[in-house]
Amino acid sequence: MTPTDIQPIVLNKLDPDPKNVRKTYTPDSVESLAASIGSVGVLQNLVVRPGKKGRFFVSAGGRRLAALKLLVQRGSIPADYAVNCQMRDEDSAVEVSLAENVMREAMHPLDEFEAFQALRNQGKTPDQIASRFGVTENLVKRRLALAKTAPQLRELFRSGEIELAQLAAFTVLDDHARQLEVWNNLSPYGRHSATIRRMLLSEQTTTDTPRFAIVGEA
Length: 218
Hints:
Helices cover 47% and strands 11% of the residues.
């Protein structure tokens, strides 16, 4: 058996691996992943090791296993649903589990926004997008709202110069020029999200400061 051996294994022969370093999954995360699997299937192979009497332990992919079993409980898939699994031996089980959980990197919010926006442009609803990505509908709506923000501000967020809460505050007013003006009028120490929202909704914003668009030109 080599680390690259891939074979389909029926779901009712798969068990959580006690050697898996992650043993706790929130109900919401399992629920959202179940929705994603129900929409597009299992996109990443489970990593398993042989157990006893023809059974297998899932060393990496415990949340996927929990989501699949949830779908079985609901009658969405049969108990003998075949899942592609990568075979590993017992000695590498902890290493594989640790690598998957520690090295995984969440998508940047702007990458999520662009992906969600592309599907929205195809006519998908927030609920359909949420199911496709295995996230909540509320998260999809929050990310799609970033379309209201000035592109220059989004790039500052991508480079780490603006926090997500600050960027989200700009969505209260769909006026890019006003957004840039407010950002420039506030001192670096006063750019709190609540202050940004208040300034955007106020008529007291001054107009005699240089536009950010000019300052930000290459």
